[in-house]
Amino acid sequence: MGEPLLRPLGLLAELTHRCPLGCPYCSNPIALESRADELDTATWARVFAEAADLGVLQVHLSGGEPTARRDIVEITEAAHRASLYTNLITSAVGLTEKKLAALARAGLDHVQISMQDADAISADRIAGYDGAYARKNAIAREVVQLGIPLTVNAVIHRANIDRIGTMVEQAVALGASRVEIAHVQYYGWALANRAKLMPTRQQVERAVGCVEALRQRYHSIIVIDAVLPDYFARYPKPCLGGWGRRSLNVSPSGKVLPCHAAETIPGLEFWSVREHSLADIWRSSPAFNAFRGTEWMKEPCASCPRRLQDFGGCRCQALALTGDARATDPVCHLSPHHVLVAELAEQRDDAPYIYRRNRADRTTAAEMAKVG
Ligand code: SF4
Ligand code: FES
User: Fold this and answer.
1) Which of 47, 144, 172, 267 is most open to solvent, judged by the fewest CB atoms within 10 Å of its CB?
2) Pocket lining: 206 vs ligand 1, CB cutoff 6 Å
3) From the CB of 334, is ligand 1 less than 6 Å away?
């Protein structure tokens, strides 16, 4: 018998897939949703109210770049009214000081800004956007000035892993309360750029030592969150705390997904908030029920004592690397496919990145500022 249905705690609201940046590790799907299909303000407000009724405590306002939405202040207000803790996950490019102040007045509780590198030229090259580094730093300072807690999300890969120390120092100097050392996870655009982003084993080992030293140095000054990157770990991560257990993602057009990469799994049926309530989707949608519990598991997971700890790892990664979403995540050293992960971790390609682009709908920072 499976565990009783838990309540979701977090909702990732992907308000739009539009974004001025082109980060090559973006976890958005390769087939980005268009502006014409985006949910309107009233529907997001309904979704937030339903989420709160369902037990959700925290909403992550994300994208793409969530502030590319003209109604981001109204959306934030609606989430706040629903008594959700609101976290804005932003690139900060295109976000103006004026808009940020309006968001603060609307009840924004927390801001997370992604940083590409400690070096401005490298950071702008990774983001595929000139001036992104300077803009991010300016907005990060403004967030702290407004008294909103700030997390710096340092996205780590081969080009910047040797500068983790400086990135953390910069986060401290900005007044961030938390820094997340977020090693790239290979989904979406990152999967397409895997060999261009993959660090070497020596780099990863140095980074682990560096994070340990930083934690001691900045103990009680900043929280440093870091996990070992997937392809170099012995056991997989319990992806999102287990499929359909604690969180849900709503795509810009209203599809509700158990995780951001779930649409890569063939045969899953996703329900939309346009036709169903969030509670109905959480309880009954075929996609959410596909990998709940342990009955779907194959060996070695099916009889493994860790199966309720890591839930067999990540379904999307199992699919991407083995072609079978029910397989053990091959990051696990017990997987018969584990050797493949070691081989892929060795592959490198120094050709230019494939930047994330949605040309038809490309929103530039200048356009965003006009409405800011
Ligand atoms: Fe986790 Fe499956 Fe590996 Fe066991 S075999 S540790 S359940 S991924
Ligand atoms: Fe889909 Fe891990 S990203 S289950």
Assistant:
1) 267
2) no
3) yes
